[in-house]
Specification:
alpha+beta, 5-stranded mixed β-sheet, 6-stranded antiparallel β-sheet, 492 residues
């Protein structure tokens, strides 16, 4: 827990109400999302019991498995859920947009929008991941055929669950983490995992949260007391009222999901959220086209090289997401200021036309002086970036005490983001009196490491040598060299 988050939790306890830890919304909230509230049977591995799904708050569709141990019923459930999900994701495959690439010399095409799924909590994402894994390899013919939508459902659920692992992706979101990204309460993180309590802390306060502590759970696991008293007898006698009971159990969570979306929409959106959503549209476009072209389902497990490549991408996404959140939100950037990775100050001197001619050719290198009351724990020569000018680098030349006690003067040399001439473009160099925040964080692209071809990895990592037949192939016999004809000798 960071310092500011700990302080916000203490303030939440004192005020009896959740406290904001963000000034902007750091995720994309779709205008037309698909909300899914899954429910699984206790004691069974990923056995679906029921689900509420839909894109209209007033018209949720209820799916129920009256006998969760019945294979046919479970696949009928998967078939119906697949119809809902596939119809939803396909609705975004009609409109495309052209994206300029190669500095405007060419264009590429992608879908103009992408689908977005919402579930109540991280356990809901885990349920979708396991359900996708159990359905995407099913066959539609043979000894145990399933409806054609079942393996398609599994592939899409696997796609969404995989995207949820990427920091900053908004294709599959859960309400608990989305709220926790923007507010903290006066209770523990484990207690925050209950959607009803967390939402009550934010909307009304601690007193309202205590009133809903014993309310219906948000799934996918059910309450043991409910299982024993209500659910088990209904399943045992195949009671016709089971769907109505499950609907009443899940409706409070369904209503809270839409209140979460409304609450998040009240926050101003971060500047770089649209950029991340564009990346989600690219990912959706690629996978939708892969499915349309009859591509193979996702493998059961990644090979060594594929796993290493995926780890690299996740690490890069996590680093990029952290920087973007800090650049979008002063409250997030304040954490880095406390840690010494950033400082704020006012420009006191500026030489915008300074040219460095010590090299082979002259280059524009303006210098500015920034006075700051904050401790500067950054080494000389370090490149800094300002969120207001992310394409510009500021190299630390010197740090000296200012005439005012407790303040420092930081001399910085600027490069980049000022045009291609020896005269800086207007507004590209900070002017005297401008307030800046400078940090070691940077959005600069970092090239990933080079990974070997799978065929070049050792056998311990899936590469050669692997032989189906360990016995060597016999060489064809060679003809013996000709020798002088010798009459056969009689044998006794």
């Amino acid at each position: 827990m960071s310092t500011l988050t700990a302080l916000a939790r203490a303030q939440a306890v004192a005020a009896g109400r959740a406290q904001p830890i963000a000034t902007v919304r750091h995720l994309h909230v779709h205008d037309h999302p698909l909300v899914l509230v899954p429910l699984a049977m206790a004691g069974e591995a990923n056995a679906p019991l029921a689900a509420l799904a839909g894109t209209d708050p007033a018209k949720p569709e209820l799916l129920v498995v009256t006998q969760p141990r019945d294979r046919d019923e479970r696949f009928r459930f998967a078939d119906r859920l697949g119809q809902i999900l596939v119809r939803y994701v396909d609705s975004f495959a009609d409109v495309t947009e052209d994206i300029p690439i190669d500095r405007g010399k060419d264009v590429r095409t992608r879908y103009a929008d992408a689908p977005q799924l919402w579930v109540p909590n991280p356990a809901g994402i885990d349920f979708l991941r396991l359900f996708g894994r159990s359905t995407r390899f099913r066959t539609i013919d043979g000894e145990y055929p399933v409806p054609v939508t079942v393996p398609l459902l599994g592939r899409w659920l696997t796609f969404f669950a995989t995207s949820a692992e990427v920091p900053g992706s908004a294709l599959l979101l859960n309400a608990v983490q989305a709220l926790g990204l923007h507010w903290v309460t006066g209770q523990s993180s484990a207690e925050d995992a209950q959607l009803g309590v967390l939402l009550a802390w934010i909307e009304e306060g601690a007193a309202a949260a205590r009133a809903v502590e014993n309310g219906p759970v948000a799934g996918p696991a059910t309450d043991p007391d409910f299982d024993n008293r209500v659910l088990a007898p209904l399943i045992e006698r195949s009671a016709p009222e089971l769907p109505a009971v499950l609907r009443d159990l899940m409706l409070p969570t369904w209503e809270r999901m839409w209140r979460v979306l409304t609450l998040l929409r009240t926050l101003p959106v971060g500047e770089r959220v649209a950029q991340r959503w564009d990346g989600d549209k690219d990912v959706y476009t690629a996978f939708a086209q892969h499915v349309a072209e009859g591509g193979a389902p996702q493998p059961r497990r990644d090979g060594a090289v594929a796993a290493a490549g995926r780890l690299q991408r996740l690490e890069s996404a996590a680093s990029r997401y952290a920087v973007q959140r800090a650049f979008d939100d002063p409250l997030v950037l304040a954490e880095y200021r406390l840690a010494g990775a950033a400082f704020a100050g006012t420009v006191t001197l500026a030489a915008p036309d300074r040219v460095d001619d010590s090299g082979k050719r002259p280059v524009l290198r303006p210098r500015i002086m920034v006075r700051t009351p904050e401790p500067v724990r950054i080494e000389l020569g370090t490149s800094l970036t300002s969120p207001s000018r992310p394409g510009q680098k500021a190299r630390v030349i010197s740090v000296a005490p200012a005439p005012v006690a407790g303040e420092s003067d930081v001399l910085l040399e600027l490069s980049g983001g000022m045009g291609r001439k020896l005269i800086a473009e207007p507004g590209s160099v900070p002017a005297v009196g401008e307030r800046l925040i400078l940090t070691t964080l940077s959005e600069e692209f970092r090239r990933s490491g080079t990974l070997p071809d799978p065929s070049e990895t050792p056998w311990t990592h899936g590469g050669p040598p692997i032989y189906d037949d360990p016995a060597p192939t016999p060489e064809p016999p060679t003809a013996a060299p000709e020798s002088p004809a010798v009459a056969p000798q009689p044998t006794n």
